[in-house]
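Lab intake sheet, docking and co-folding queue.

SAMPLE TYPE: protein with bound small molecule
LIGAND NAME: glutathione
LIGAND FORMAT: SMILES
REQUESTED OUTPUT: full 3D complex as structure tokens
PRIORITY: normal
SUBMITTED BY: R.K., bench team

The fields below were copied directly from the construct record.
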Amino acid sequence: MKIYGDANSGNCLKVKWVCDRLALPYTWVEIDTMKGGSRTAEFLKRNGWGQVPTVELDDGRTLAQSNAIIRYLARGSDLIPSDPYRAAQMDAWMFWEQNSHEPYVAVCRFQAVYLGKAISEIDPNLVKRGYVALDHLERHLAGTQFLVGDAFSLADVSLLAYTRVAEDGGLELARYPAIRRWIADAERVLALPPVRWPQVNAAMTEASSITIRRARREDVAAIVGMLADDPLGSARERIEDPLPQSYYEAFARVERDPNLQLVVAVDGEGVVVGCLQLAVLPGISSQGGSRGLLEDVRVAKHCRSRGIGEKLVQWAVTEARARGCMLVELLTHQTRVDAQRFYERLGFARSHVGMTIRF
Ligand SMILES: N[C@@H](CCC(=O)N[C@@H](CS)C(=O)NCC(=O)O)C(=O)O
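RESULT FIELD (auto-filled):
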């Protein structure tokens, strides 16, 4: 049998997973749908809908539609309940997947991963409907190990495909403990390597104990400490005791300026663990729309990778929007590759080339 598929597509992976689990031999033929690979005359002879997955059986017959394919391939196996009522319950979930889950959860991911949209640009209606589907799954999975009772079935294969990668499309799984437990169980059955979002969830939990408040004069030393604590900052800042007066003078200017907000993230004990400055820049261009400018975003070294930077940036974006800004932008040094990746994950797009004259 040949499987025509895209190895990054959940619909196609359903077919691969079932074949692997049942030890069915196949040849995978990779099709690049974004380059029209599923719309060639040759492909359309196999599947007039022009979609993957499509399988070609050894006798030359073809079959399309992921759920129909896996249902055919798994006939007689333990992936389909032998009890007809249970089998119908499995079908019900698989129809629901195509009708009420995949069109939202998979399409959010498609917009982000295939079309390269920032998470913030994904159609909000899709996001809303995606969460409705996940809410429904969560409620059901809170009371059962797999979708149809205690036995793993094709319903789990079908719904696992896009649920486990929902975060690629900006749908957060942190709020769904039953779904996360079920994903781990289903991945174990299918011998799949676990998806990488558990770290994201751990990070979010820690970030939840953080509060963000306006910086005070007594925070200045901690802020300068964080600014100095990286390769570029260490050459730029002066950490002395007492701190050079210029930092306090600058802080006083920032504090007086109504368009500037210097904020700090503090942990449960009140220790400063992050900072950020938001400048709201009024301007005539673009019909007089203000711009939000993010600067000096820092997280204390021992607190990195815990979602604190994300929380700070999200705070600033919300604040800028509330102050009527039409956009938020930032400059990041071209050598800060990790920072660029971080901002892209939060929805920022590479848009300008920065230029500087230093005095
Ligand atoms: N309902 C179909 C959906 C198939 C589908 O949307 N395939 C996408 C990839 S995930 C595709 O082939 N898109 C290319 C195109 O439509 O041209 C299934 O479950 O197999």
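REVIEWER NOTE: The two ends are 68 Å apart (CA to CA).
SIGN-OFF: pending second check by T.M.
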